[in-house]
Amino acid sequence: MLKNIDPTLNAEVLYALRSMGHGDTLVVSDTNFPSDAIARQTAFGELLRIDNVSAARAMEAILSVLPLDSGLQNSVGRMEVMGAPDEITPVQAEVQKIVDKAEGKPSPMYGIERFAFYEKAKQAYCVITTGETRFYGCFLLTKGVIPPDG
After folding, report:
1. Is the pTM of this model over 0.85?
2. Is 149 part of the annotated catalytic residue set?
3. Number of domains within the chain
4. What pLDDT digit, counting tens, does each position of 101-117 carry?
């Protein structure tokens, strides 16, 4: 156990998050996502797990240590609902609240069509699968930077 680190974050996840650079992306996925097959195609090359928690809880833990890219674009994407791309599912609404809290301001997620999401996921640094069982609990995060003090 470590002080000031969310116990949901295991050593493998912390290692991957620390190894990522500015602009690298990571996938946080639900249990229905083809996580293992996609993860094998990422830079990290193996699946990471935060089991037995929702996507929202995993996102809360991840965002406690991961800076989001705050450039000109939104830094969190969500998998769009097929046939209803503007629909926000309950799991997506929960994650949106966590993103806003972590950023200290409204930070709207952008939609990514389902099959385009799969392709972007293959280009990610890593995939972290969660215990989320609700559909469309899949997100793409872009890592930002931590500025120097002063």
Report:
1. yes
2. no
3. 1
4. 999 999 999 999 999 99
Of 15, 51, 110, 118, the catalytic one is 118
Q: Which residues contact 123 (CB under 8 A, 6 or more apart)?
A: 25, 42
106 located within any domain: yes
The domain that holds 53 is classified in CATH as 3.40.1650.10
The 3-state secondary structure of 14-52 reads HHHHHHCCCCCEEEEECCCCCHHHHHCCCCCCCCEEECC
Residue keyed to tokens 């946080």: 28
Across the beta sheet with 76-79, the strand order is 48-50, 126-130, 25-29, 139-142, 76-79, 110-112
Please tell me which residue in 24, 69, 125, 136 is annotated as part of the active site: 69
CB 130, CB 55: distance < 8 Å: yes
Exactly one of 22, 36, 51, 110 is catalytic; which is it? 22
